[in-house]
Design a protein that fits this description.
Helix 1 crosses helix 2 and helix 2 (about 30-40) crosses helix 4. It is built from 4 helices and 7 strands. By secondary structure, the protein is of the alpha+beta class. The two termini are about 30 Å apart. InterPro entries: ASHA1/2-like_C, START-like_dom_sf.
Length: about 170
């Protein structure tokens, strides 16, 4: 499957222009402290247990609705981590590299970051194994949940200083 390919029968998508440089969005995905700030819809809070942003690395988080009692949120494997451009992960394989039966849905997520005149062209595609899984994900609130956390991500990074880290070749 090529970068960013979308199948309307199997996939769901969130697209947004984030008015911040790609490196800031990348950092919000790859820095555990920053990821914890936006990864679950507020007022719930998140703990990032493991974040190894490299192919084969772990991505494990928990969430809490009362700020004290945390439950599992995501146990996934990173499939791709192309610096400043793309992140892909799946919960169909647990961070232990064992096959998983994630509830309520197995999904592979691809996050694509591209240059935009106003910041970052942000595209997150949730890929499903069959149309029933896609429909189930839509029914349980994909648009609200992923839309909310994308808004939280944007709020976190918009207004962040635009100094690019070493190795970043984007225009902003």
């Amino acid at each position: 499957m090529s970068l960013g390919e979308f199948d309307p029968e199997l996939d769901l998508v969130v697209e947004r222009v984030i008015r911040a440089p790609r490196h800031a969005v990348w950092r919000a995905w790859t820095d555990p402290a920053r990821l914890a700030q936006w990864w679950v819809p507020a007022p719930a809070v998140c703990r990032v247990q493991r974040l190894e942003m490299r192919p084969g690395g772990a991505m494990v988080s928990q969430y809490s609705t009362d700020g004290t009692r945390f439950v599992p949120h995501l146990d996934a494997v990173v499939l791709a981590a192309d610096e400043f451009e793309r992140i892909a992960f799946t919960n169909a394989i647990a961070s232990s590299w064992r096959p998983a039966d994630p509830q309520p849905i197995a999904v592979t997520v691809e996050v694509i970051l591209a240059e935009h005149p106003e910041g970052t062209d942000y595209r997150m595609i949730a890929r499903h194994g069959d149309p029933a899984s896609r429909s189930r994900h839509a029914e349980i609130g994909f648009a609200d949940g992923w839309g909310t956390v994308t808004g939280q991500l944007a709020a976190l990074v918009e207004g962040v200083g635009a100094e690019a880290p070493a190795g970043f070749e984007g225009s902003r």
